[in-house]
Batch of 2 targets.
Target 1
Amino acid sequence: MFWKPNPSSGIPIYLQLVDQVKHAIETGALRPDEQLPGIRKVAGDLVVNVNTVAKAYRELEHEGVIELRQGFGAFVAGNSAESGAQRKFLRALPAMRTAVNRIAQLGLDEQQMRRLFETELTRLRKGSQHD
Amino acid sequence: MIEEPIIITRKLRKAYGRRLAVDGLDLEVPSGSICGLLGRNGSGKTTALKMLMGITRPDSGEGRVFGQRINNNQESLAIRARTGFLPEDKLVPGGMTVGELIRFTRAFYPLWRKDLEEHFLRLFHLPPSMTGASLSKGARCQLSLVLALSRGAELLVLDEPTSGLDPAMSEQVLRSLVTLAGEGQTTVLFSSHQISEVEQIADRVCMISRGRAVLSEEMDELANTYQQVRIVFDGKPPVSEFDNAREEGRTLSMLVRGDVEEVVARGRAMHALSVDVAPATLKDIFLTETSEAVE
Amino acid sequence: MSKANQMLWYKAWTDTRMFFFLGMFSLIAMVGALNMAYPGSPGQEFPHGALAVRLADVRSLPQDARSYIWLHWFGNTLVIWLSILAVALASTGFPPPRAATGSILHTLALPVSRRIMAGVRVAMGFVELVIAAVIPTLLVCVAAALRGQSYSVREGLVQSLLAVAGAGALYALFVFFSATLGEMAKGILGCATLFLFGLFTFLVDGVQRYSIFRLMTGDMYFLRGEIPWLGIAGSVCASLLLIAGSLAIVERRDY
């Protein structure tokens, strides 16, 4: 998947690898959430030091381009609509929980809570229409 | 936790008659690393490696491999039990066949890696029934490699491992070294005349010139330590103001070790027309640090 | 025996078997030749005395099979061939000094003490020397029987071991040369030594008693049944000293 880096170009090998991964993501050779080849495999295929590949992967993780999942390997950072929506959902969950708990404490029942939620949603929609 | 280096030498010295082959050599090879040893012919590389293996004894200075002293017979034997050595002259005993030689060597290393032996025999197409004396030069080099790399050794000391091999075989050998070191149980110290090989797989570089180490650094650090600087002047360049500067017309070129900002500032202070800084390649560094004129 | 030690002996064998086979073959061929040439006429064949047998002794020998065999085999053939074999066996397989190159680097990098490696090599050569002396000698006895004559096996064995005592010392000396000298020096000094030994044996009458070649012929034993204990002791001592010295030198030397 990767070209052999040029050791004599003056650009450190690990940076060449970082660029190659980024380029692969841009061109679609690597997709979000897709797993990257293991460090040792890359080292063996390209015949470069294992530590160099490890350094490249660390740098990519630092820049947020990939994720290193303990025990599983390296994965391209997910930014697809699906997982983005999933993340947003998870982030909104605490706020919702707090609100529901507070309203429940005021003594409203389920039906009343739903009507409240619809009212707010409508208000939001109407508000955005005026923007 | 910092581990003790697998190889550590202090002020190793060896003279042959009046010729000083190794002159106060300090060497450190961290465990698990791939260390490339660069040096011109006659720089003392081979003598240093032979001293590590107890084949030659130092006149003075000390060295330890696996914590064992290299100039003590018993401890040197312990070192050799855990080390795979590839000599510079890839000659093998001529009286035995390829198969016999492998069986012979294997008997001394209980941790022998049969899988590696088979891998290399297949790779090199070595005929098991040919005697050592009747092998071609390339085949002898290949056989030496099989014998050195299959030992299951914790340390590999290889004097020019790819010499005598074609580029495809060289690459396979380098791949094996990368894989062995990557598995985590092997340290590699190899000398080479091919600078690109060292750049490709080593994570540590050591340069020897006139029997002494002129450089011993992590590969990644080199980019921070060495830079090429080119300064263009309006008239005759002040070549004496800069160390090791080459004069070409109105341009001064030099390899700067360490504080490059200072050199840039100096150039600007002398009204340079332009100052360019570029990363130095290992070749640049090698040619400068081991040049005979430097002393 | 550990596998590693087995291998050391095996390597010593592969290093020396060529010479061993050549020596054995030559000696066995000589057995045949001597058998066919019997009875011959010693007076004419050895006008100046055999290699280590004085002319007077040659003339005084009775004309029987026993004397024939002794004169030709122990007094001549075995002395010459065993000496050559001893020199040959001692000259290979030893790392010459200052050898920065060569296949010995591979063996020197093995986890074996040099003393053991060289010791096995020396021992192998010596064993081959013994076999090369004893087996053909036994064949001589057999060959004699085939022609209706006889040579006592016991005598033959004793004589062959005397030959080994002498050849062994020569072997030890050349092992020492191999361990200490370069190729050229070894060749020159080796030839000079053999020449000197031969000189003493032949020409200098008073010293002839101490000649190593004479020890090998076992003439005292043959003529008078006396075993030359002094000669044997001297030879063995010299051999042990030379071998010990050689091993120590190989241990200390730089390659």
Note: Residues 222-289 of chain B form a domain with the Alpha-Beta Plaits fold (CATH 3.30.70).
Target 2
Amino acid sequence: MNKRNLLFLFLIIIFAFSLGAVQWKEGLLHAGGISTLVQMLKSIFQPDLSWSTLQLAFESLWLTLAYAVAGISIALVIAFIFGILASGILASSPFGTWLSFGVFRGILGFMRAIHELIWAWLFVAAIGLSPFAAIFALAIAYGGALGRVFADILKDVPKEPIDALKSSGASKLQILLYGYLPATASNLLSYAMYRFECALRSSAIMSFVGLGGLGYQIQLSLSELRYNEVWTYMFFLIVLVWAVDCWSSLLRNRLDKPNKSKLNFINISAVAAVSLIVATWLYMFVAENADIFTLFSAKNAAHGQKFIASLLGIGETNPAFLSAGSWKNALRLSYETLMISIIAIGFSSIGMLLTVIPAARNAAEGTLTLSRKWYNWLVFGMIRCIYIFSRSVPELVWAMLIVYILKPGILAGALALAFHNFGILGKLSAEVVEDLDLRPVRNLASSGATSSQLLLYGVLPSVLPKFITYILYRWEVIIRTTIVVGFVGAGGLGQQFKLSMSWFHYTDVTLILICYLLLVGMVDLLSEGCRRLIK
Amino acid sequence: MAAERMFVLNNLTKIYGEMKALSSLSLVVEKGETIALIGPSGAGKTTLLNLLANTIKPDEGTISVDGKPMQEYKSTKQFASKVGIIRQQFDLIGQLEVIHNVLAGRLKDWSFFKSMLSLVIPQEKNLAVNALDRVGLSNKVFEKAMNLSGGEQQRVALARILIQKPEAVLADEPVASLDPARAEDILYMLTKLAAEEQQTLIASLHSVSYAKKYFKRIIALKSGKVYFDLPAEEVTEELLSSLYYLEEDKRHE
């Protein structure tokens, strides 16, 4: 058996093992869980379309969009500056290289390691409830993620044109302007657009720290058991995310092709993006009356200082992060969190593997397995719709729904994460199948293989390694989000984080954050190691 | 006169790991000469050009450029007005318009803000248009460089060198990726422009016939040493076949 097969086997065993962490026997459903589920499912087809609900939905849609735009616009500035610094392209001495890789990469890594909702919560605790808590939280988490990728993109620019500029006497900054930036602009833009789509979902869940938007309305309607309204807001969120998804994929297509006319899609997009950013900030300052200067008042500064001091345990006789008992508990919760993430990625991978083939365009056309059935396109469309549906709803919202059906615990959290990631994995993996080189498949077909044999011998071996890469990559994302689904009682570090925050046990919060960062770091290393094995 | 010498190379040695890319090479290049570097692959042509371009440092020996030792050129900006380089391709930023790729030749004299402004409103536009006119590309000023053919891209690189105005031009396989007609076109232009600008030109080439046709002096390198160094008309078929043949022989040993 080769290394790759061993790895597959190893991953499957880990997943099976993690299932043992769920307490299956104690009854997972609420007493009325099933009937709630039926009610919820029924109301999908009867969303509340009354004028007052729609009005509220449009207002919340704008709020969600506005927070996302405001957050991502600051994130872009952060990512641009830190990305350049962290790429090492400006470094001219060993010290500069050390600075860019050690320090700036480290800062970006720290920013993105902590989930935006945690940032938001910390900001609310430090400066009080203000739109800026959400905006800054989004800006930091997304600035970190974008900056890291910007740095990698800049680093991968072909060397030759850069050397040519250098030899014609251009300075470092001039090389940046005439070399690195134009060469990477379209890549940077596509990635920023992709991240904007994610920011919309994050913005929706900012409701959890008390800010308005679609997430807030979903939460409100859920608590009043008005499922028809829940679905109205849900559909608004899905359409918003889907629309941005379409915009970004159209833009990506156009960026790759040369275009001469002035009035093209790219220019229109640029104008639209700029107007959106301007409108958002105007709205923040005028309508929301969010005054950025009061934010930096002496009162807030004192408050923030006090908050940081209590996080650090200053003045505390027995801070949690120095107590063995607290550590034991925190490590147990970390283990639980790890198990949740593994169950979640396992479930979403199984879901993806079961649906991915019919969800690929080339399978629907019949070019993949060389069999064409009348229902292919129908199945293709249905699965793609489910993918969009599943990935447009943030994990936390899935979790909110699920805790009405399942008892809070590991499984509830894992399912919420699995539902969201199923759609993402499905989409990514279907694209892998669509990009498959079909010549080996044709060859097999001509030697008499049936459709299912084609899948087993021609398709699976070439797509599986890529699937695993995506699965591992999503696992890294899931471990960061596991803490968030814990907020609604889905177990692990998140649940404890929420409790400690509401009891003002700030040294506990610090301990949880330390464990969280260790966990995230460990999973990143593991996943990177596994991915290297596959290559 | 020392001032008439563009490059003086003294006992240059460059070692990569186990292999001597150049061993104790000495050369004198007068101003205004046009030189073709020929020789089998791995003979040290690119290493020599990179040394002259100051992109790598020799392990032993010295180079002086225009009467001044190489190490006395403190900034790349200062050096860029002495020596300019054209490589076989990939010199351009594909996503940037032709005019900005050409104006990059002026960056050595421009401030950061002027270069930033120029990306919005092209500065010294006439200079660039003029240079593009001289290489026959005046109709492609605002085209993106990536949409140009290989030959056209190489002409843009020539236009950049034209406005960079170095005293010597180094060309590393300038026509390796072009078809014969385009290759002759570029070489004709390269040598013609160098003559007009009274520049020193050193080009490495694979094709001996191009070397004889367009260059006055031919230096053949083999195993990091000068195999022969003659005026183009004195290079004979026998010399050439021994230059390339012996290499084959060695490989079989």
Note: Chain B has a mean pLDDT of 85.
